[in-house]
């Protein structure tokens, strides 16, 4: 008979059983579930709600189950529906009567909420560590490429020259945003819902603060309905995960472009690429493509849970059981992607000459030519036009700006002097952009130091 079978005349139909159960995904949180139960029982004992003998039997029994589960010695059963009733059933099997007292003053609704809060906090910490690794890899590569010139793009057209370090530091900033989102998500999940009961608290004098402190929570939830029906922390998690995947996906898209023969900026390590079954010459950036592709399923989880929640009346509804599958799928996907991406990134070879060549290609110094004229007293709008006319002239002659003679320059405006060549050199275009956040090596060096400091301030 079911743990809740008292008022029923028969067991659920097999189809219902299979439809309703969630043990396959729920078994992933046996650790949190059992630790939560140990804290609950300990508190019940301290409050005199359970006898010392029963409390000890329960705590020892639960520790035994935990140990066996960690060693893969427990088989969870679909019949017991979910992880909560699996653990409770097993406890009763093992210790008898005392086991039947564990669920005093508790509902599966606040129990699952507790487990959920704990799994989200655990996952946030794991992801923060992975993001930190990735940022460290990016920072050390950036440090090594402060002077590696490359084109900066807008509209995927050559725009202005930058450095590889500067480009990579943009991603460091994005992944720092992500770390703050996961830190926030962890704070959102950091409230202890046990004691909310099914929805309306309980008549037992539970010491909720005690349970919170036993489990390492910094506060308790303050409304029993919210305690069992809140899934915002999952949505915060999925939203943070979606943003991180979006950042990874954009990065992957660039790496895919950069290793094409059109760009040829980088070479992927052979261990992080794959071949073709028909075309012998192929070396494909599968890892980057797959990460880009998996972004869709993480967005899917976010939209899935937002949609599942949108019409639910307070408080607990079974719809919410969908939360865990979406959460675990997104969390696994993100963690896997972060680990593989970081490993792949560490092995990339950069073709510095090719990048520098491209940095000068496409008139990336045309803005600097206009700025040169402005510094000589010409209004920016006129300077912009003159520089544009020079570009058009170069295109018609198959030249670049630095190829033009001083006479050619002067035929567009007599103010041009021999110092124009220095003003539009690659070194000047990059090196003189030396304000905070700009690509000059000195400025990027400061950004790196600043990012390292911010990275070291995360504790998880
Ligand atoms: N398996 C359920 C879930 O994941 C636990 C809570 C069930 N509560 C209930 N009254 N059926 O949401």
Query: How many structurally independent domains?
Result: 3
Shape: elongated
**Mind telling me the CATH class of the largest domain?**
Mainly Alpha
Q: Proportion of β residues?
A: under 5%
- Rg is 30 Å
Order of helices and strands: HHHHHHEEHHHHEHHEHHHHHHH
List the helices and strands and how they pair.
Elements: H1 14-20, H2 23-26, H3 30-46, H4 52-70, H5 83-95, H6 108-144, E1 149-154, E2 157-163, H7 164-189, H8 208-215, H9 224-229, H10 232-258, E3 266-267, H11 286-309, H12 322-346, E4 349-350, H13 352-360, H14 366-375, H15 380-397, H16 406-412, H17 420-423, H18 426-431, H19 441-456
Antiparallel strand pairs: 1-2, 3-4
Helix pairs in contact: 3-4, 3-6, 3-8, 4-5, 6-7, 6-12, 6-19, 7-10, 7-19, 10-11, 10-12, 11-12, 14-15
Summarize the structure.
The protein is mostly helical. The protein is built from 19 helices and four strands.
Key terms:
3 domains, two-stranded antiparallel ribbon, Fumarase C, Chain B, domain 1, mainly alpha, two-stranded antiparallel sheet, 4 strands, 460 residues, Ribonucleotide Reductase Protein R1, domain 1, Fumarase C, Chain A, domain 2
